[in-house]
Design goal:
Strands 5-4-6-7-10-9 form a six-stranded mixed β-sheet, with helices on both faces. Strands 1-2-3-8 form a four-stranded antiparallel β-sheet. The chain is α/β, with parallel strands linked by helices and 215 residues long. The radius of gyration is 17 Å and the shape is globular. A hairpin with a 2-residue loop joins strand 9 and strand 10. The longest helix has 17 residues. Helix 2 packs across helix 3. It contains six helices and ten strands. Helix content is 28%, strand content 26%. The N and C termini lie far apart (37 Å).
């Protein structure tokens, strides 16, 4: 296991639960739960899992799923906030397409499918990340990057399923995906918002919107 939390770097870590696949640990400061890092897939194994996903750009079900994030995100933006980055877009960047259809100027980035460095060399009015943050080995790294990418009063929109308590986590199918290694509680996101000067709201069980405060 890590000696410190992979999100907030706190040193007080406790075992949370374990199953036949791996153990899970919880940070006692930000409440991130993370899988035993000795159980991680290789990058090649991880990409092979993603290549199995059948998320097509013309799939109305997938579009409906992503609208859980796109609708509240778009409603939170002013007309002038028109530049966005879809971070972790995967092989089928439908969310970026949907946001482009709504008049936003979109860039995409993904470590396996769209690793274009120039996308990370500008600032944005909003950054979206759908069903990707749970795959992050070191979410502190991505969080720090997002802080650098966001303009003043920008919005960070995340989609990931949140755990609620230890009992439900133990029986949670979401943790059984071998590529899912970092798990977030509502308190985790509230901790980050308070620490880094965001407002935060939760428009759906698996959606969280951060907005940078004016400093």
């Amino acid at each position: 296991m890590n000696s410190v939390c992979s999100l907030c770097q706190h040193s007080q870590i406790q075992i949370f639960c374990s199953d036949k696949r791996r153990a899970y640990f919880q940070c006692q400061q930000c409440f991130l739960v993370f899988a035993d890092r000795t159980s991680l897939l290789t990058a090649e194994q991880e990409k092979a899992q993603y290549d199995l996903h059948q998320n097509q750009l013309d799939d109305p079900g997938y579009r409906k799923f992503l609208s859980r994030l796109s609708v509240p995100l778009l409603s939170s933006l002013t007309p002038e906030q028109n530049t966005g980055l879809d971070f972790g877009c995967g092989p089928g960047p439908l969310l970026a397409q949907m946001l482009s259809e709504a008049g936003k100027q979109m860039q995409v980035w993904d470590p396996f499918y769209a690793a274009e460095p120039q996308a990370l060399q500008q600032k944005y009015h909003f950054v979206s990340c759908t069903e990707a943050i749970e795959h992050f080995i070191n979410p502190a790294k991505e969080w720090s990057l997002w802080l650098d990418l966001l303009l003043p009063e920008a919005v960070l929109a995340l989609m990931t399923k949140r755990y609620t308590d230890q009992s439900s986590f133990s029986n949670w199918h979401y943790k059984n995906d071998p590529t899912h290694i970092s798990f977030f509680h509502q308190d985790t996101f509230e901790f980050l918002a308070k620490r880094d000067n965001f407002t935060v709201n939760f428009p759906a069980d698996d959606v969280v919107l951060f907005k940078k405060r004016n400093t």
